[in-house]
């Protein structure tokens, strides 16, 4: 862990495709902190993919599991936690996360998110079977609905220009400066 680090956990939120995993892994490596992706943690603990859980329990069933797993993993020490795009929008999750450590909203425009999500939309239950036009409309509308939750984060970091390794490094430097690490 970095000298003078004031927190034992940093929580990253933002829409699907914003780069939470990319930033989380890089930040964790740089600070010597373990990286956890909440969806991966859920899959490991439940021994099912997020898609399977959605199919079996629906979104509301998944969100309950997600909340329980959030409360479990957010108690770990010395971690960077990347949350799913919807995590902040359910139950008291934002209030809880804000009480666990600094929460950083990785903010990107609908166009940037669209480009990132096009590459892996088959893996994301909420995006399956959408045409390109439906996908951009879905992202824009859902981002607008979620903004009121995302904006409750203590910090907001613009990640629109994270399209190369060098720009990811710049983003990590900005984030460390923002958090005074």
What's the helical proportion of residues?
40-55%
- Secondary-structure element pattern, one letter each: EHEHHEHEHHEH
Q: What can be said about the biggest beta sheet? A: 5 strands, parallel
| Total strands | 5
Pick out the low-confidence regions: none
Spatial separation of the terminal alpha carbons: 10 Å
Rg value: 16 Å
The global form is globular
**What share of residues are in beta strands?**
5-15%
Q: DSSP helix count?
A: 7
Assembly level: single chain
Provide an overview of this structure.
The chain has 181 residues and is an alpha/beta fold. It has seven helices and five strands; from the N terminus they run βαβααβαβααβα. It has helices at 20-31, 38-46, 50-73, 93-100, 110-118, 132-150, 165-178, and strands at residues 9-13, 34-37, 79-82, 103-107, 155-158. The radius of gyration is 16 Å and the shape is globular. The N and C termini lie close together (10 Å). The mean pLDDT is 91.
Task: Give me a quick take on this structure.
With 181 residues, this protein is of the alpha/beta class. Helices cover 52% and strands 12% of the residues. The longest helix is centred in the middle third of the chain and has 24 residues, at 50-73.
